[in-house]
Recover the amino acids of this structure.
């Protein structure tokens, strides 16, 4: 099995957070960075396991949907608090729906907007190589 780390993508967006005690943040923006981890079958006879450019394009399309947006207003965050943790989880779900196949699956999404903290949302994935 191969793990391909695809990065780095960036998007600028704003969000407003609600905290446990009922308080909230003001609307503010960040430039988020994103790396996607994909597990794939072993390379075929040509030495290729995945169409890397197609994968990049699929991720970029989803990143573009967030760029210069107020995240709280987007349907994918409806009813959700768009924290870094939630953003990584939602991106994991969206990218999994777009990318996953019998041959490759998203296994983690990592985001950050400063050097102080990276959030990595991951799930165990299993790809059965018939060879
Ligand atoms: Zn923030």
């Amino acid at each position: 099995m191969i793990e391909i780390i695809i990065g780095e993508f960036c998007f600028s967006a704003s969000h407003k957070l609600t905290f446990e005690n009922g308080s909230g943040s003001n609307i503010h923006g960040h430039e988020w960075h994103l790396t996607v981890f994909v597990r794939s079958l072993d390379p075929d006879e040509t030495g290729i396991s995945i169409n890397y450019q197609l994968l990049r394009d699929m991720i970029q399309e989803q990143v573009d949907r967030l760029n210069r947006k107020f995240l709280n207003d987007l349907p994918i965050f409806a009813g959700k608090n768009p924290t870094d943790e939630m953003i990584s989880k939602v991106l994991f779900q969206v990218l999994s729906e777009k990318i996953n196949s019998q041959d490759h699956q998203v296994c983690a999404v990592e985001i950050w907007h400063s050097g102080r903290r990276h959030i990595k949302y991951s799930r165990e994935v299993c790809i059965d190589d018939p060879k």
Remarks:
- The mean pLDDT is 93.
- The pocket of zinc ion is lined by residues 15, 28, 30 (CB under 6 Å).
- The CA atoms of residues 42 and 48 lie 8 Å apart.
- The radius of gyration is 16 Å.
